[in-house]
Amino acid sequence: MSRAATRVLALANQKGGVGKTTTAINLGTALAAVGERVLIIDLDPQGNASTGLGIEQRNRSTFDVLTGDATILEAKVATHVPRLSIVPATIDLMSFEREAGNASGKHYRFRDCLAELTASESVDERTTYVLIDCPPSLNLLTLNALAAADACLCPCQCEFFALEGLAQLLSTVEEIRVRLNPKLRIHGVVLTMYDQRTSLSDQVVEDVRAVLGEKVYTTVIPRNVRVAESPSHGKPVLLYDYKCSGSQAYIQLASEVIERERRIRAA
Length: 267
Fold this sequence. Notes:
This protein is α/β, with parallel strands linked by helices and 267 residues long. The chain has one domain (7-266): P-loop containing nucleotide triphosphate hydrolases (Rossmann fold). Helix content is 44%, strand content 17%. The protein has 12 helices and 8 strands. Strands 3-4-2-5-1-6-7-8 form an 8-stranded mixed sheet, with helices on both faces. A hairpin with a 5-residue loop joins strand 3 (77-78) and strand 4. Helix 1 packs across helix 12 (245-266) and helix 6 packs across helix 7. The longest helix is centred in the last third of the chain and has 22 residues, at 245-266. The protein is globular. The model has no long low-confidence stretch (mean pLDDT 92). This is Chromosome partitioning protein ParA. Pfam families: AAA_31. Residues 7-186 form the AAA domain. InterPro entries: AAA_dom, DNA_Partitioning_ATPase, P-loop_NTPase.
């Protein structure tokens, strides 16, 4: 990929339990494995992306970045995956909305922090992908992520209420595009937790593709026990079990993301 620009993708869905954090960790790992320099931003107060990458000690966090007490460069830490770093989260993030109050520009704090990062990085060391793991709600943290992002990547669980949740998210993205970030687009919808043993999963895949067409990635992430086990070991599934179906699916998803990026740049 050209080092001319850093691409910022927010992984968002107002519904919880759809695989946002799992996708952030494993898509980030797969992108790093093919040579991209990836930075994951953990914006969820639960800090699951940080724990899932084996980050225990968190001296600086996304809360410190958002409040101006640290830069992204000061807060980011390396992971066990070459070329993959993370700015970890702590429970302090829960107080961000109260801390921000009615301050002007509160929706753009993270955008400004990212601008400072890209201005300070050399061309050879520049981060090529920033993946923001959003909390499962439309709060000030999520608004900061969407205001800073080039595009939104939407994990969607293969279950009954999937289309309802997606409709809400697409409406939210359009509202943010109008109010806060004119460049924001839907990068793609990734269907997660697909269970080939059930007709329900097949029906959800069919319904989502019928409504959203090419916005849906071809890759479908299967329900896989190795994917579920890996966070307890502080590892992405690609390090925990490279050959399992979950790992192979995230490698395919990374290829799709890169291919869509190529088409965006060529347009």
